[in-house]
Amino acid sequence: MTFPVVGMVGGGQLARMTHEAGIPLGIRFKLLSDTPQDSAAQVVGDVVIGDYRDLDTLREFARGCDVITFDHEHVPTEHLRALEADGIPVRPGPDALVHAQDKGVMRARLDAIGVPCPRHRIVSDPADVVAFAAEGDGFPVVLKTVRGGYDGKGVWVVETAEEAADPFRAGVPVLAEEKVDYVRELAANVVRSPHGQAVAYPVVESQQVNGVCDTVIAPAPGLDEGLALQAEEMALRIAKELDVVGHLAVELFQTRDGRILVNELAMRPHNSGHWTQDGAITSQFANHVRAVLDLPLGDPRPRARWTVMVNVLGGDYPDMYSAYLHCMARDPQLKIHMYGKDVKPGRKVGHVNTYGDDVDDVLERARHAAGYLRGTITE
Amino acid sequence: MTFPVVGMVGGGQLARMTHEAGIPLGIRFKLLSDTPQDSAAQVVGDVVIGDYRDLDTLREFARGCDVITFDHEHVPTEHLRALEADGIPVRPGPDALVHAQDKGVMRARLDAIGVPCPRHRIVSDPADVVAFAAEGDGFPVVLKTVRGGYDGKGVWVVETAEEAADPFRAGVPVLAEEKVDYVRELAANVVRSPHGQAVAYPVVESQQVNGVCDTVIAPAPGLDEGLALQAEEMALRIAKELDVVGHLAVELFQTRDGRILVNELAMRPHNSGHWTQDGAITSQFANHVRAVLDLPLGDPRPRARWTVMVNVLGGDYPDMYSAYLHCMARDPQLKIHMYGKDVKPGRKVGHVNTYGDDVDDVLERARHAAGYLRGTITE
């Protein structure tokens, strides 16, 4: 067979689940992973252990790959350009990916194409922050390092000029944003291929706990149809304007006054799309693979009325296996997805999906299983 | 984590798809494969290349596995007993597996527990075959080598004493069976765990072409509810009486006079269960893994009104990739499962699953895709 080789940079759970989705597609999957213990490295056949920050390692890895894609956004832009210069397709490409790497670049670009965002400005010291606050509704103000933040890291909500000093200590550029008065967070997930085909998944509600995604409900309950359509169209437009290839997650605020504003972008399979593994005709992982290979995309529509995803975080007990057995016995329809990671308190070690006709029941089943696995529910 | 290690003997597509199903379960999967090019060896991380007929190789492989299971039935029974003596759980165990390895043992055992089978007898020469024919409705008679046959190999339908000479040339025991007057073939698939929990999938219709499974329709269209229940109960009873652990496929004849007779047994995931990957809440592969680990089993119920599986056989063109692209574009809901095998005419290289509310439409979509991939349909 002459099926192509997809080179995945990064050995986390997104790579693991992308490999899983690639097996039925018959594609060959090659992984660049930091260590042999990484989540994906445990389950992939063709693994190179190496540092993605080293250009020679990347180049050597890319040889023999038909396309390079990513588990994370941390590969330096100049390395991606070097791979492209070598003739290796990089998807998403560096010109797209920079918008998921640098929040300053992302905000400037979304402003330029007229996509609504929270009020924002690059700030250089606490006095700038005070001025920014004064021009709006005052404090609190959200400060973010423009690069490197995720899951609540690199983000501060500050109430005073004194508190605003912290983010500047690292000496990296800082973005100030209004603290949006939102009723909930949503995510609009789309997938786009190089020849411009694109599909949109239903808009979901995403609930965060301590800055970390906790629960996703698909579709977002009670979301006005017009607003849902607006969110999908916005995500499709961002994908097109930024020339994204692969999965794009657009994290959104639904404001109290009925608008939607873009919070963050991620150009890879995303936690807000894990429900698609069991809840959609084609998962985000399968469609990401299809997109980066410029294959026709699969149907993104849901298979159930409601699907709920709840993340499983590490608790105090390192051994989840007996809890796992209990959860399977309690709910034979439960879909558990474990990442093969060592349990550390608060670490994402898996997720569960449930689906059905009654959203309250579906939510309860997923929350019970995730809580039991973590150890916060004991009966 | 202390998740267990499942050791899979055999590197074919069943092992490949079992690995795929094991990834979300978080179990560790170790493979014993003949060559690194085998279907499963391409996608599994922990692969040992070696000969399963060599006891030392098996013993070395089994060290560090929590349980051993199989992609095929060809491991010698005495080797399995040796592994058990070493303290390694072998699932299914040798006492169960022998019924899937030796058709003579299987028929004797099913007779003993009162499960209806075609009329049969072990025969030792053509004269025996003539006598067997004369005691029933005469020729044709079906002759099978008791070991080693699959996909129509090791099976002869003979019309005369002269034709009956062939099967004896190899010098292995031969089983004679009446040629059953059947209206169609069915399969009853069940999964059973060591502590005795068992689940039954809906009974399916299985259509063969030249002795090779071609199409599976789930559930079997128009099957009388009483007969379906009888088939499920029969499969559950066989699993219990034979102490099967893991997936058991019971291939059945539905006779013109409304009975069901057991044709073959397979104690592993089976071609007649591939539809469960996209059509059931829990796939046969996931439930096989759960069973061999004595984990609670998953819900076997269907997710769609109809699911159809059609095998993709190799055709005259070694490169299926462009046909594959065409099929994805034509039917965004199509589920393709490729095995990573080189295309050879007639070789099973993949299968497709389709599902929906209209059985004719679902059948047409699956047949078109499989035919297009093989090259027998060109538009």
UniProtKB/TrEMBL annotation, chains A, B:
Source species of the chain: Streptomyces guryensis
SUPFAM superfamilies named in the record = Glutathione synthetase ATP-binding domain-like, PreATP-grasp domain, Rudiment single hybrid motif
NCBIfam families named in the record: PRK06019.1-5, PRK06019.1-6, purK
Gene Ontology biological process terms from the UniProt entry: 'de novo' IMP biosynthetic process
Q: Which domain of life is it from?
A: Bacteria
Function, in words: Catalyzes the ATP-dependent conversion of 5-aminoimidazole ribonucleotide (AIR) and HCO(3)(-) to N5-carboxyaminoimidazole ribonucleotide (N5-CAIR). Catalyzes the ATP-dependent conversion of 5-aminoimidazole ribonucleotide (AIR) and HCO(3)- to N5-carboxyaminoimidazole ribonucleotide (N5-CAIR).
Record has Ligase as a keyword: yes
Identify this protein by name: N5-carboxyaminoimidazole ribonucleotide synthase
ATP-grasp domain location, by residue? 107-293
Q: Which Pfam families match?
A: ATP-grasp, PurK_C, RS_preATP-grasp-like
The annotated subunit structure for this chain is: Homodimer.
Q: What is its EC number?
A: 6.3.4.18
Matching entries from InterPro entries are given as: ATP-grasp, ATP-grasp_carboxylate-amine, ATP_grasp_subdomain_1, PreATP-grasp_dom_sf, PurK, PurK_C, PurT/PurK_preATP-grasp, Rudment_hybrid_motif
